[in-house]
Design goal:
This protein is α/β, with parallel strands linked by helices. The protein folds into two domains: 346 residues, Rossmann fold (3-Layer(aba) Sandwich), CATH 3.40.50; 54 residues, Alpha-Beta Plaits (2-Layer Sandwich), CATH 3.30.70. The chain is built from 13 helices and 19 strands. It starts with a strand and ends with a strand. The structure holds iron/sulfur cluster.
Length: 411
């Protein structure tokens, strides 16, 4: 089966073709958004505000004009993200590549620095998994590796969701698009941890309570306490699987396991499919902004030079088709020789190639980033698409419909 994907080129010659004000809202309209949304409906626009030092995240005006469009059709827009993995920097005192996103107040401060505020959006900003990432719903779902997904708890407050994604590379997942925005972005903080590591969560209850001092202090739900024997007790009912106890554990008394790169991708896809199963595919609309295509994700402080030119906006009701289409269009593009791919010797810069097969990747065996200067080919990016189609999240096959704004006709 084929899904429909609408394509709006990044090329513009006048304000009438604006990528932000005109093409974004029209991309939504093309996939049936305007006719499905009723007066007064609450519409959440799920995007990514970018890690603190990142500069390739989506420009705020793309999202602002989506908010304006939602209002213009009589609905109420909200702009949302979810808390990042780990404990806030004010607790850990450690600044990392991924800083500034662990809790709502910390992330909204980063969002403000990046230009996303209630004033600039004309809409409320929120974390879908609550103030510290512990607001989640345990949704039963038969995935390839998971039987349960930690869906971000506030998602249920909204009648529709627009998944507005900056499409780019990702060192673990091969690329980051709509599927990742669902499987990492729409689950709780704990859902992100589980995607990366799996569901192992073991405590050394024989360890002295002093080893758990920091864990007890940070637990937001009171799930951890000292028993009458002086040993730790964890209340399974109260635990919201935020894993912040593990994040501050310096004594190695909590084991959350590990996953291979392939397991990570399949677990992320399980999460994505679980979110759609919970929320309903009829209420979700996907926009991929295929611009500023770097090899790094927005969740890191790194923002290298884009490795292909801007492509444009893709919209679809199918997260797999819209991601497959973005990958295909990137692979049909010429490489920027001033980007990371230009460092690879013996690779032709003269013709299009499967560029994601050459982008840097995380080597989980060596536990370090491989910038791939030797140009070793790997189809690691395809694991995500195959897993997503296998689990029924969507189709890799699609009809590409290019929309010509000037004539307002499809060509
Ligand atoms: S026990 Fe750990 S994972 Fe569970 S709620 Fe407390 S801090 Fe979060």
């Amino acid at each position: 089966m084929k899904s429909e994907v609408y394509y709006f080129t990044a090329r513009t010659f006048s304000h009438e073709e604006s990528l932000s004000k005109v093409k974004g809202p029209l991309a939504l309209e093309k996939i049936g958004f305007n006719s499905k949304v009723n007066n007064g409906d609450k519409v959440v626009i799920k995007t990514h505000f970018g890690a603190l030092e990142n500069v390739r995240y989506l420009r705020p005006s793309y999202i602002r004009f989506l908010c304006d469009h939602v209002k213009a059709i009589g609905a109420v827009p909200y702009v949302a993200e979810s808390c990042g993995w780990g404990a806030p920097e004010e607790v850990t005192g450690i600044h990392t590549e991924y800083s500034g996103r662990a809790a709502e107040d910390e992330y909204l401060e980063t969002a403000k620095i990046h230009g996303f505020t209630k004033e600039t959006m004309g809409a409320e900003l929120l974390m879908l998994d609550g103030s510290v990432g512990a607001n989640s719903i345990r949704h039963s779902f038969k995935g390839k590796r998971f039987n349960e997904v930690l869906v971000a708890g506030r998602l249920k407050e909204f009648d529709h969701m627009v998944v507005a994604t900056h499409f780019k590379g990702h060192i673990g997942a091969g690329f980051g698009g709509a599927i990742k925005n669902l499987g990492i972005g729409c689950v709780s903080k704990g859902g992100k941890v589980q995607a990366h590591l799996g569901k192992k969560f073991e405590f050394n209850f024989d360890a002295p309570i002093s080893d758990y001092e920091a864990c007890l202090k940070i637990c937001p739900t009171g799930a951890l306490k000292e028993g009458s024997d002086g040993k730790l007790i964890r209340d399974e009912e109260k635990c919201k699987y935020c894993y912040m106890c593990k994040s501050v554990c310096k004594n190695n008394v909590i084991d959350t396991g590990s996953s291979t790169q392939e397991e990570f991708v399949v677990q992320m896809v399980d999460n994505a499919a679980g979110v759609v199963d919970y929320y309903g595919s009829d209420k979700i609309y996907f926009l991929n902004y295929v611009i500023d295509v770097t090899w790094q994700c927005d969740c890191t402080g790194g923002s290298d030079v884009p490795f292909v030119s801007d492509i444009g906006i893709l919209s679809s009701k199918d997260p797999v088709a819209v991601d497959q289409c973005a990958v295909d269009l990137i692979h049909l593009s010429y490489m920027n020789p001033h980007s990371i791919l230009g460092n690879i010797e013996n690779i032709s810069k003269e013709k299009p190639k499967e560029w994601f097969s050459f982008t840097p990747r995380f080597d989980s065996k060596k536990d370090k980033l491989d910038l791939n200067p030797s140009g070793k080919e790997s189809k690691h990016w395809e694991i995500q698409l195959k897993a997503a189609e296998d689990i029924g999240l969507g189709f890799r096959d699609y009809n590409l419909i290019e929309v010509n704004i000037e004539s307002k006709k499809e060509s």
